Amino acid sequence: MAPSRRLAALAAITALALAACASNDAKGSDVVSAMEDAGLDEEFPDAPECMGDEFDRKFSQDELNDLGSADDPEDFPAGTEDTVDSIIEQCTTGGGTGDESDTGDEGTESTTTTTAEGE
């Protein structure tokens, strides 16, 4: 994981952990605040909001709380590390917030050529 992405992951789990310690449910806005506090928005201006939206969209409340209890990315609950990594990748490479519909059809565009007979 690249240093900026590792920083983002650590900041995200710190924010979620702080929310969990305060007996509040962890939420995407906690991730946004942590990303901004860590200065991620200086390198990736849209990343904090993107990450907060994606954490809220992709994880249930229980999963957010479980992520918040992790001390390190290696401690993420089973099955969540790849999703966290993909959110960080998407939000730090200009992939947007994922609001666009994703049909999985990238790279399958075809072209049809029509020719006139007898010419």
Please tell me about this protein's structure.
The chain has helices at 3-21, 28-37, 40-43, 47-58, 61-68, 81-92. By secondary structure, the protein is mainly α. It has one domain. The chain is globular. Mean pLDDT is 73; it is low at 97-112.
Largest sheet: none
Subunit organisation of the chains: single chain
Distance between the termini: 58 Å
Would you tell me the structural class of the helices and strands? Answer: mainly alpha
The total of helices stands at: 6
Short account of what is shown:
The chain has 119 residues and is an all-alpha fold. Helix content is 55%, strand content 0%.
Task: Describe the secondary-structure layout.
Blueprint: H1 3-21, H2 28-37, H3 40-43, H4 47-58, H5 61-68, H6 81-92
Helix pairs in contact: 1-2, 1-5, 2-4, 4-6
Defining key terms:
119 residues; mainly alpha; 6 helices
